[in-house]
From TrEMBL:
Organism: Tsuneonella litorea
GO molecular function: ABC-type transporter activity; ATP binding; ATP hydrolysis activity; ATPase-coupled lipid transmembrane transporter activity
Main location: membrane
Regions crossing the membrane: 12-31, 51-71, 130-150, 156-176, 240-259
Name of the protein: ABC transporter ATP-binding protein/permease
Bilayer topology: Multi-pass membrane protein
Domain ABC transmembrane type-1: 14-289
């Protein structure tokens, strides 16, 4: 059975059905005990002791019903948790396959909502709506059949009232859907704003916008509360309708039963048994009415989750896609276009060459590097590495031999070692030491009290900009990938650190692409590609190229695998 986004395992479905049947059986026991107890009370002059066993039976049935309700709650909640656990991983796998630039187009608030609030909403629908609804429907159908067996008119009266209650509840559905949509929008705005404030607190403070931002957040907060209250009012109304329905059903059934009694078709015991049964059915009837409430509230969440899962994403290891092992490191661009950034770029970068990518701001330099690292997917054309079309390569392997440094790739929360070895978890201390030296990081690591085990906060914000940049360079250069992509790598470096880094690049044994505005970096390269307005306008030898001399083993510890 499908629950809209994930299938309900047959075992769980069997559990829910069994719980529904068990509750219906216990309800049957209640009817029998009530019937007999009332009969015994009616004839009490003869023997009062005859009442007690039935009262004891009612007590036992009540305890069983309590136990079954507790079990039902636990099982239904577990079903929701399990389904959402699977769905969360599905969403996550989809997200990690998306091109980072594609993610940047989405608001952070709505993205976070998808993985948190939307899933909670969907879980509630599964647990309290669908799973509990199935059990309740079974109890309701069997219970009403028993009432009909005792007294047809009482069953018809109860069905009528329950039906009217359900219709009234459904009539609120459209309002609830609209109110829920408003709550979602407001929540997404608020979450996105808070997330942005956390990340840009320095901007807010230094630009003197604390007051303005506070009043913006306060306004969003108030709007959110207003929307929540509006939604709560409608949900309250729906709950009121279902509570009133439960009581009204008993009253109307009693009236029908009383009429039947007056006609001599029903005994007092039968009336009492059927009336208390109808009373018991109020709870499953209410649960069924709430399915609609949960369904409506989760409607948008389900649609948004489905849309997200249907959006473009690259499977991490798709069958039929080939792995890429970079050898010479030759890169070809075949009529590559990226909307708003590049237009029909074609050209070949031979393996083991250093190429400067130059051009004015916004010319498409970072996008070109992003294509090779698969941070961006081409809208048209293909990028090939050593003859393999990247879009038909598994994502996992196509980036293994490609190192990149870019402002779009921040450091992560964790130790310095974790950051440096993020790609190569098994890197040895020697490999680490060689890359630290190449990036001028020996001094920094030596000065930190815990060395490589020092803790970095999100984005490495507890380091200076230059230190961060050097750690990012070392992270990209660990084990010297055959293709190294550098997007303005020395922007934040002092002259000395830049010189150390330039020396490492000068003798780098793989293909290097440097997007740069710095003539000193252009001078390190063999060729220059010049971009302008997303077009490749010039390819030629780099000016002022100097000869770095032969590569000595001690210059570069660690070899290409
Ligand atoms: N994350 C993004 N999402 C959408 N479009 C983007 C994104 N980043 C860049 N662009 C678009 O692509 C165009 C090229 O940007 P790109 O960053 O590649 O230029 P660049 O040459 O590296 O510029 P700079 O020298 O300023 O870094 C920009 O004009 C911009 O409109």
């Amino acid at each position: 059975m499908s629950l809209g986004l994930v299938p309900l395992p047959p075992r769980d479905l069997a559990w829910v059905i069994a719980l529904g049947i068990a509750q219906a059986l216990v309800l049957g026991g209640w009817i029998v005990c009530t019937w007999q107890a009332v009969d015994a009370i009616a004839g009490m002059q003869q023997d009062i002791a005859a009442v007690y066993p039935w009262l004891a039976g009612l007590l036992a049935v009540s305890l069983c019903m309590g136990g079954l309700r507790a079990l039902e709650f636990r099982v239904c909640e577990r079903i929701g948790f399990d389904a959402v656990r699977r769905l969360r991983m599905q969403l996550y796998r989809h997200m990690v396959g998306m091109a980072p630039r594609q993610i940047q187009h989405r608001s952070r608030g709505s993205l976070l909502l998808r993985l948190t609030g939307d899933l909670t909403m969907y879980r509630t629908l599964l647990s309290r709506g669908i799973a509990r609804g199935i059990a309740s429907a079974i109890v309701l159908v069997i219970g009403l059949a028993v009432v009909a067996w005792i007294s047809g008119p009482m069953a018809v009266a109860a069905i009528l009232v329950f039906g009217l209650g359900a219709a009234a509840s459904v009539s609120q559905g459209r309002l609830l859907r609209r109110a829920t949509a408003v709550v979602r929008r407001r929540r997404s705005l608020l979450t996105g704003n808070i997330d942005e404030q956390v990340n840009t607190l320095a901007v807010v403070q230094t630009f003197g916008r604390v007051g303005g931002e506070t009043s913006r957040l306060s306004h969003q907060n108030d709007s959110m509360t207003k929307a929540l209250n509006r939604e709560a009012a409608i949900r309250g109304r729906m709950r009121g309708i279902s509570a009133a329905t439960g009581w009204a059903a008993v009253m109307v059934a009693l009236a029908a039963g009383a009429y039947e009694m007056s006609e001599g078709y029903l005994t007092l015991a039968g009336l009492a048994a059927a009336a208390t049964c109808v009373r018991h059915l109020a709870s499953p009837a209410r649960n069924l009415a709430l399915v609609h409430d949960y369904w409506r509230r989760a409607d948008i969440s389900r649609r948004k989750i489905r849309d997200f899962l249907n959006s473009r994403s690259r499977p991490l290891d798709e069958l039929g896609h080939m792995p890429v092992r970079v050898r010479a490191g030759m890169i070809q661009f075949d009529r590559v276009s990226v909307k708003g950034a590049l237009s029909g770029v074609s050209g070949t970068i031979p393996g083991r060459k250093r190429v400067a990518i130059v051009g004015p701001s916004g010319a498409g330099k970072s996008t070109l590097l992003g294509l090779v690292a698969r941070l961006v997917e081409p809208d048209q054309g293909e990028v090939l590495v050593d003859g393999i079309v990247l879009s038909s390569a598994t994502l996992h392997t196509s980036t293994r031999d490609i190192g990149i440094v870019s402002a779009d790739l921040p450091l992560m929360r964790g130790t310095l070692r974790r950051n440096l070895t993020y790609r190569h978890r098994s890197a040895s201390d020697e490999e680490l030491a060689s890359v630290l030296t190449a990036c001028g990081l020996d001094g920094l690591v030596g000065s930190l009290p815990q060395g490589l085990d020092s803790w970095l906060t999100e984005g490495g914000r507890n380091l200076s900009a230059g230190e961060r940049q050097r750690v990012a360079l070392a992270r990209a250069m660990l084990r010297f990938p055959r293709i190294l992509l550098l997007d303005e790598p020395t922007t934040n470096l002092d002259r000395e650190s830049a010189a150390i880094f330039h020396a490492a690049i000068d003798r780098y044994p793989g293909t290097v692409l440097i997007a740069t505005h710095d003539p000193a970096e252009v001078a390190l390269t063999d060729m220059t590609w010049e971009l302008c307005d997303g077009r490749l306008v010039r390819v030629g030898p780099s000016e002022d190229r100097h000869d770095p001399g032969p590569l000595r083993a001690q210059d570069m510890v660690g070899t290409l695998q």
